Amino acid sequence: MKKTRIKEVVVAITYKCNARCRMCNIWKIKEHFGEITPDDFLRLPKNLKDINISGGEPFLRKDLGAIIIAIQKRCPRAKVIISSNGFATELIISQMKEIIKIMPDIGVAVSIDGIGKAHSDIRGLQNCFEKDIETIKELKKIGVKNIKIGFTLGGYNAKELFEVYYLSKKLKTELSLTVVHSSENYFGKINAIENRDEMIQALNWLIDKELSAWNYKNWGRAYFAYGAREFIKKGTRILPDYSGILSIFINPQGVIYPCDVSNKKIGNLRDIANLEKINKNNLNGCEQSWMVCTARQSIKKHYIKVILWIIWHKFLKVKI
Ligand code: SF4
Questions:
Q1: pTM, entire model
Q2: Ramachandran angles phi, psi of 203, nearest 5°
Q3: pLDDT digits (tens, 9 = 90+) for 133-184
Q4: Can you tell me the distance from the alpha carbon of 225 to that of 320, in angstroms, rounded to the nearest whole number?
Q5: Residue 117 belongs to some domain of the structure
Q6: Atom of ligand 1 lying closest to residue 15 CA
Q7: Which terminal residue of the chain, N or C, has fewer Cβ atoms less than 10 Å from its own Cβ?
Q8: How many helices (DSSP H) and strands (DSSP E) are in the chain?
């Protein structure tokens, strides 16, 4: 396959899920969705830099190890992270014991949207919080180094952000923020933004917190949180969207979309000729999202703007 400009892929390898999250209908409507095989991953663009293996719950696929082998073979330079709800501790740990032998630097992001019952209620699973903490601790024990807490911010859990931030510090994991999005194609659900003021307040706090650190990664996260705040305020992105050119979303059947909130099919992983055609004609131009998967490429492309923002607000102390 010819070299494409695509640098980043989110691939939902299954829509099967053991959680019952309030902001997602995947578990209700997509249980019997078809799934591509590990060999299909040998058709991914070779020059990928970031691959997020998502779901559903990715660890429910018994052949996850075989998928990782194929990805390792095809995209040896890619940073790979598996996004999990973290609930099936034993299954996750038994799979990860094998997976880190194949790809030692692979990461796992475990979703935690609140403390204790607040989180379990959002995810629709009893004791989900306790199981997730156990999963994180067990992942550390078996030697997984890149562990993140994924926090999805909605109007229903803005107050939980502070505590989850400190939990991530206590567990020595990175906190990765997402704002609740609507997607008929992916989540099968429209999530209206509620309690906007509380969400903005929580994000202002996070921006200040991240900016006060002395690490450029925290400053980058502050900028991302600023983008999330502006997205909540105005419903638009602070930087242009390059999904469909620099990043794509692939569903469990191999169908390719510019991103997971888009309904526009642009190809199929099984159709190499089609994949080669992915170019700027597929630009999503989607103003309705500010997710890490599409924001990262925008931030890289507009890095001067980001550096100026950091200088302005971190060093010159201009109020955001
Ligand atoms: S948000 Fe993720 S974990 Fe929750 S039901 Fe949807 S796919 Fe499952």
A1: 0.93
A2: -70, -35
A3: 999 999 999 999 999 999 999 999 999 999 999 999 999 999 999 998 877 7
A4: 12
A5: yes
A6: 7
A7: N
A8: 11, 9
Q: Contact 188/24 with Cβ under 8 angstroms?
A: yes
Which of 15, 25, 83, 85 maximizes ligand 1 atoms within 8 Å of its Cβ, making it the mutation to test the pocket? 85
Tell me how far the alpha carbon of residue 112 lies from the centroid of ligand 1, in angstroms. 12
User: Using an 8 Å Cβ cutoff, are 22 and 66 in contact?
Assistant: no
Token pair belonging to 315? 């060093």
Q: What SS3 class is residue 189?
A: strand
Single out the residue of 255, 234, 247 nearest to residue 284, CA to CA: 247
Q: Whose CA is nearest to atom 2 of ligand 1?
A: 56
Range of the domain at 167: 8-315
Residue 2 lies in a domain: no
In the sheet with 255-257, reading across from the earlier edge strand, the strands are: 174-179, 146-153, 107-111, 79-84, 50-54, 8-12, 247-250, 255-257, 267-268
Residues 24-69 pLDDT 10s? 888 877 667 889 999 999 999 999 999 999 999 999 999 999 999 9
Give the β-pairing of 8-12 and 50-54. parallel
